[in-house]
């Protein structure tokens, strides 16, 4: 089991910057705004041959009475409970605060091994402000600079030292079996976090009745029927005109990156709001990215028969380009329709990674041409010779021949339908590339 390190501290002390430094990624949103991270955020780090998991948490306010700050405090306590070691991050520039004392008392009550780290301490080794932090009662104060990378390696060594990690690597075979990355995408407040919490059986993500509660893309490991997944809860995409805060701009980028890196995207729509232009924009981006996709209409229990007919009509009108995707009507809060939804997710991933042999593809191509030949363009009729697979996730079929630049989009759709039917490709885009052979005598004088 990989050891787990949780980063805890009040807002804007640099926890997310330290998270990015430890994981050598830019997975956590970093900006000069207090309270930017709200959920637990998981990442992988490595020191030599030893791997570990890092959890970035929202700003910890132990005495938060209600609302989003109470939810963030609950998330932080859960992160501490999961951790082997806690890194308590304070701000060396601002000095000791009353909130630091509150957090220190809460961490002592939770009883996990804890390292006190003063971030932003570049050039402050002899500062009196660092001495003040000894009041918190966690022993030595470790001065670091997450932004500049100072003191990071020594900090990780100190964090892992008491865990007595084994020297041998036992998980090489497991690494080869990579989990399926499943991104849950959609507009704000359609129920993405609620759905993932329902799958997990715990409140892993902040599910709060306020649009835009999730600002970052959160990755959570999950296993179902022996198959491993990584569930990615993405920040809700807003209409472009509404993206006016730096935080929201970061969130849109994280959502698009999550879609780009996923194997399968679950596009979650809200039955009570219908299918909007923004839903169509998100669907279009999923298609452009070539991701396998499943569509789920959430809150189906909250609408009457007339609204249901309207939603189904809107799907046909606004999302005709996703006809290949399975469509499900669910209620995340009431756990309705989730079994069939999983079947479609698994099927979409299998379709996206299906291997198609060259002889079968070429046979299907010749049968299609025999059934309906491509239209003649002037003096030229496209001649299709053979086909082979050019990629997976999404599947790409490359067709070779002569004068293929004259093949119409309608004929490509005809070929796509035949290939889909033969290989049972459901839930994944299928790309067809046409490559015309070059005539070696074309440029020579007659």
UniProtKB/TrEMBL annotation:
InterPro entries: AAA+_ATPase (IPR003593), G_ENGA (IPR031166), GTP-bd (IPR006073), GTPase_Der (IPR016484), KH_dom-like (IPR032859), KH_dom-like_a/b (IPR015946), P-loop_NTPase (IPR027417), Small_GTP-bd (IPR005225). Keywords: GTP-binding, Hydrolase, Nucleotide-binding, Repeat, Ribosome biogenesis. GO terms for molecular function: hydrolase activity. PROSITE patterns: G_ENGA. SUPFAM superfamilies: P-loop containing nucleoside triphosphate hydrolases. Residues 3-167, 180-353 form the EngA-type G domain. GTP 1 binds at residues 9-16, 56-60, 119-122. GTP 2 binds at residues 186-193, 233-237, 298-301. GTPase that plays an essential role in the late steps of ribosome biogenesis. PANTHER family: GTPASE DER (PTHR43834). Belongs to the TRAFAC class TrmE-Era-EngA-EngB-Septin-like GTPase superfamily. EngA (Der) GTPase family. Associates with the 50S ribosomal subunit. This is GTPase Der. The gene is der.
């Amino acid at each position: 089991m990989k050891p787990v390190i949780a980063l805890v501290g009040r807002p804007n002390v640099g926890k997310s910057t330290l998270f990015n430094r430890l994981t050598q990624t830019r997975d956590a949103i970093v900006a000069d705004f207090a309270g930017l991270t709200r959920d637990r955020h998981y990442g992988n780090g490595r020191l030599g041959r030893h791997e570990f998991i890092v959890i970035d948490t929202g700003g910890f306010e132990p005495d938060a009475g209600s609302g989003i700050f109470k939810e963030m405090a609950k998330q932080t306590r859960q992160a501490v409970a999961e951790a082997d070691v806690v890194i308590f991050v304070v701000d060396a520039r601002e000095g000791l605060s009353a909130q630091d004392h509150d957090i220190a008392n809460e961490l002592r009550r939770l009883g996990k091994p804890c390292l006190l780290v003063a971030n932003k301490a570049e050039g402050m080794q002899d500062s009196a402000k660092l001495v003040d932090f000894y009041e918190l009662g966690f022993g030595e104060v470790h001065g670091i600079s997450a932004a500049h990378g100072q003191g990071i390696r020594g900090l990780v060594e100190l964090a892992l030292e008491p865990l007595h990690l084994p020297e041998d690597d036992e998980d090489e075979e497991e690494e080869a079996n990579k989990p399926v990355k499943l991104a849950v995408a959609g507009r704000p407040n359609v129920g993405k976090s609620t759905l993932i919490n329902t799958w997990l059986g715990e409140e892993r993500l902040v599910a709060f009745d306020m649009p835009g509660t999730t600002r970052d893309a959160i990755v959570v490991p999950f296993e179902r029927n022996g198959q491993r997944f990584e569930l990615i809860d993405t920040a809700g995409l807003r209409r472009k005109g509404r993206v006016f805060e730096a935080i929201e701009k970061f969130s849109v980028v994280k959502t698009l990156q999550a879609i780009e890196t996923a194997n399968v995207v679950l596009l979650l729509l809200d039955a009570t709001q219908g299918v909007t232009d923004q839903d169509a924009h998100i669907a279009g981006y999923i298609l452009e990215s070539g991701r396998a996709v499943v569509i789920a209409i959430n809150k189906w229990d909250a609408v009457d028969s007339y609204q249901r007919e309207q939603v189904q009509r809107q799907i046909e009108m606004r999302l005709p380009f996703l006809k290949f995707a399975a469509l499900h009507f669910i209620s995340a809060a009431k756990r309705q329709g989730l079994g069939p939804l999983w079947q479609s997710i698994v099927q979409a991933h299998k379709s996206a990674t299906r291997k198609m042999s060259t002889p079968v593809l070429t046979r299907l191509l010749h049968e299609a041409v025999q059934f309906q030949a491509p239209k003649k363009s002037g003096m030229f009729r496209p001649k299709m010779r053979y086909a082979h697979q050019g990629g997976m996730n999404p599947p790409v079929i490359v067709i070779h021949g002569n004068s293929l630049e004259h093949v119409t989009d309608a004929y490509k759709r005809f070929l796509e339908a035949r290939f889909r039917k033969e290989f049972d490709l459901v839930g994944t885009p299928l790309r067809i590339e046409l490559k015309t052979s070059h005539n070696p005598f074309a440029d020579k004088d007659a």
